[in-house]
Structures are given as C-alpha cells and as structure tokens.
Design goal:
alpha+beta
Amino acid sequence: MLTVQGSAIAYRLFDVGYAIDLERALDLLATSAPERIRPVRGEGQALHISNPPITVLLGTAVLIVDNVTRDVDVSARIFDFGVVSIRVRVRAPDADSWARFTTFGQHLEHHPGIDAVARQHLRLLAERIHAAVERPVIASVHEDYVVFRVTRITDARGEPLSPEALAALEVAPLLLNETRPLSAEARRELLPHRFSYYGDELAILTWENALVIEPGEQDTDLQYILEFANAQLLELRYYDAQLDAELPRLYDAIEAARARRSVFPGRRFAALLSRLQAQVADSTELVERVENALKVTDDVYLARVYSAALELFRGRAWRAGIDRKLAILRETYAMLNSEAQASRSETLEIAIVLLIVAEIAMAIMRG
C-alpha cells in the first residue's frame, strides 16, 4: 500500500497586453509582496532569463470537489511579454493508494470551478497592474496546464519508493485519462518525455499536464520552467491567430484600395503600407522577445526538461507558421510598394507629357 502526499497546480495563462513593465508592476503590487524569482538549483545557472517574471500571492478561494469544500491557494506569475499566469493550487487529501491520488487528479484537471476562480483573480489583478500594461486587452486565446506535484510517496513500510518502483507507477490514468491498461508500446509512444535527476525524483510531461515527484516541497524549478514554456506557447498561439485573422482583412483592404479613385493613384496604398509595416514590426519584435526570454546555455537537467517541453508544445512548428505568415505580409508590402512606385512613376510621366504639350501649345499660340 502506497502513501501519497501532494497537490495539483492548475495553470490558466492569459495574454493581457502587448507588454508589461515589470518594474512598474512591482510598484503597483507592493502591498502583496511580489518577488522576481529565478530557478534555484545549481544547474539553473544554465538558464538565462533576461527579465525574470514577477510572482505574487493573490489569496485563497473555495473549490468544491466531490461535494467536499476545499480551500485553494491562488497566485500569479507576470511575464514582461504580456502574459499573466494564474495558478490555483489544490492540496490533495492524504491518499493511501496511488489510485486514490489518481482519482483526485482526474477530478481536478478539468474542474469548471478552477476557470471561475482564475478569471475572477485575473480581472482583479489586471485592474491593479493596468498602468504597467502596454495596449491592455485580455485576448480570447488562453492556455491551460496542470502539474500534479507529489512531495512524498512511500511504500507500506513507510520507506520512499525505489527508482525502479517510481518508474513502474501506472501514470496513464492520471496523465492521459485512460481507464484501461496501455500496452508497453503505447506507453512509450504516448509518454516518451520522462526525466529523473536524483533517485527519488521523476518528471513526466504530456501536452496537457505533467507529473512531478520531488521530495523538496520548496523546489519548484521544474514547475517554473514548465510554466515559462506554456507562457511562450500562449504568445506564439496568440500571434499566429492574430496573423490568421489579419490576412483575410488585408486582402479585402487591398481590393478596396485598388477600387478607390484618387487624383494621386500612388497614394492609394499609403495607409495600408503603414499598417502592414506596423503589423510586421510588432509581431517580429514580440515573437523575438518571447523566444529570447529564456535561453539555454548548457545541456543540464532543467535545460533538457525545458527543451522537451518546447518540443512537446510544438514551439518550432508554431514559430514556423508565424514566420510563413510574416513572409506573406512582407511580400505583400513589397508588391504594394512596387505598385505604388509604378503608379507614381506613371503619374509623373503623364505630368511631364502634359507639360510638354502645354509648352508646344503656348509656342504655337505665340507664333
């Protein structure tokens, strides 16, 4: 019989604006004792974070799980590239079996009350830091993630599980919501991202959640980098959606501009060219800032987990999609600019011809 102690941390990440001035936000949140935390493990030195996010406690809330009222801790992490992560931490009842902890996790992962708690605290937090947010607006795109954090797991004798026993835990019902036993091949394919540094640690990542078994309750470095990777994923998804919406509007605007009559045809695209230039500049700057927010400088444990999270979240694929759409915008800009230049040249040629004709006419009239 196993004894399991742990909790579930539900993350709800939102884009609240183009950028956040973290120094200004620190001042606005001073009464809540905000902190700028970095990974504390020794190998955390291999993760270079240019502008560490702010962590702030927001208080407690009440959640009803299986008809039992539970107090939950609510906190937030604020990233300079415009993302706010609301974290709702629910302590698990001490479980006398892994199956009971699994049931607790299954009930929490998609609990509707978590969304309500997160959005309520997001609204209050957004009001507090409004003055620090550039172009504030809460986007419709958001990201959800859950970390099941186990701080103690022992066998019937009260001894910590061996590395072999940890590795043999049946995690598919918890992480994949599968009720039937999976084959060994299916487990390898669906749960390939497994990491362990010390013998009493284990981390398993999936698209929607992760299991982190770590006896040091204050050691939250793995949660930190998973949250960071999710924040970066959200921004990539957000700007991909923005560009998806922009392209059809752009084509309509081009048709409207071409149909517009003007004394100076070369000026028809002036506003459109300005808009395109701003869109490309904003998107490029933000995406570069997101990707450079955390850099890996060495192949250590935390770095491997972070890289695996980015791979799992398909960060490269999202970035490639954004790059393709930005390339379309740049090509469109070049095409419209060339067309405008051609129109201006044609207008100039016509003006020159008219001047020549006028000179000839005046000469004839004088003669």
